Amino acid sequence: MTAFFDDIEVGDTLDLGAHTFTREEIIRFAEKYDPQAFHLSEEGAARTHFGRLCASGWHTAAVFMKLWVAACKTLDDAERAAGRTPARLGPSPGFEDLKWIKPVYAGDTLRYSHVVTGKTESRSRPEWGLVHFDMSAVNQDGRLAFSFKGTVFVERRKSLNA
Fold first, then answer.
1. How many domains are contained in the chain?
2. Span 127-162, pLDDT tens digits
């Protein structure tokens, strides 16, 4: 995130990057975390309503988290390299409206991004603010495949809290 709560604007957008879901990783993820026929093999998937191998919804969510962490680290590293201290991220109090809109098939590429939709000052923790965002992932055809509404605590500038 890098920016302090006070500097974040509604409408700020962050491109988290893209990920291509391979057959091998879909199966590997499913074997460990979501062993359903349509995630485990082409043959098993062919006998389901999906018709072919597709990624677990939890796999698409895990990729979001991987890309989010990597993007935040890149931004934080750039701030430090420029001699500035990045804002700290706190915990997320949760998310809502999680949707798996389109199946993610082997070979599909999702591009993940999030846009800030609101900010709330914390009354109980004045050194932090809550940033609300919509996260989305679109496939290679530009169609929305995955989304949710999230919230995360973001550090406020120390000068405002002194």
1. 1
2. 999 999 999 999 999 999 999 999 999 999 864 444
